[in-house]
Design goal:
CATH topology: Rossmann fold
Pfam families: ABC_tran
CATH class: Alpha Beta
Low-confidence stretches: none
CATH architecture: 3-Layer(aba) Sandwich
Helix content: 40-55%
Organism: Labilibaculum antarcticum
Number of strands: 10
Keywords: ATP-binding, Nucleotide-binding, Transport
Protein name: ABC transporter
Strand order of the largest sheet: 6-7-8-3-9-10
Bound molecules: adenosine-5'-triphosphate
GO molecular function: ATP binding; ATP hydrolysis activity
Order of helices and strands: EEEHEEHEHHHEHEHEEHHH
Amino acid sequence: MLEKSPAVISIQNLEKSYQNGRQANKVLKGINIEIQPGQIIGYIGPNGAGKSTTVKILCGLLPDFEGDITILGYDLRTQPIEIKKRIGYIPENAALYDTLTPREYLQFVGELHGMAHDDINQKIGKLLNLFEMKAHADERLNSFSKGMRQKILIISGLIHNPAIIFMDEPLSGLDANSVIIVKEILTQLARDGKTIFYSSHIMDVVEKISDRIILIDNGNIVADGSFADLNSKDHTGSLEKLFTELTGTSGHSKKAEEIIHVFEN
Ligand SMILES: Nc1ncnc2c1ncn2[C@@H]1O[C@H](COP(=O)(O)OP(=O)(O)OP(=O)(O)O)[C@@H](O)[C@H]1O
């Protein structure tokens, strides 16, 4: 019998509350996930479900949480630096140093990761080329469009060759060609044994690239499995339909009609 590889991400009873004045607002209510290496995990859910909160906790950006998390065998509470060295985080939006050029910014990121100069420069050249950004390597970031900035963020999350890549709505602002490139990159990274934790609203991309889909709603996991498993269980046909059925957000055309009525009256 094939032995199961040890989990690269282990989340046990994860709970998180934000303080709202005097009241605690619990947004993660007991999340349990074990993730094997080389998988692409699609982490989906409605607005406010707790996706970004989960990703930020896993990347060590929100240290105040309940439960136990180990990543690559390191305890997130006591060994966050060991984890941060080995993961990449690609958020939807992040402040880039606007006065720098992509080359300068990426050199800075590479140095923070302790990479050798030659290695940094070689990776920068290859990745900028791949994302069709080489011509802009020495222009200032403050002149960049949303999609161009997003490409630089993606490169900065990959440059140090992390074992796990956390992505929070990474395709935001990218054109169709760039989306295809990112999809291909993710598939190949997973083939090379990297683990990808991918949080997104873009259902057809999640459906196509994910080995496993985890759907959260209101801080709880409501579905967890491959698209084929989830689809055969609920007979829905598409991830979008499954999403709306399980998160109770159906009746869209009626809602749209009501919104139009607001303008008409
Ligand atoms: N810094 C914060 N302080 C207080 N409440 C917060 C904070 N960040 C998030 N929340 C609340 O936590 C809940 C989950 O937010 P989160 O950003 O994790 O959701 P999400 O699933 O990523 O949503 P979206 O799809 O809209 O990005 C929401 O109710 C949100 O209002």
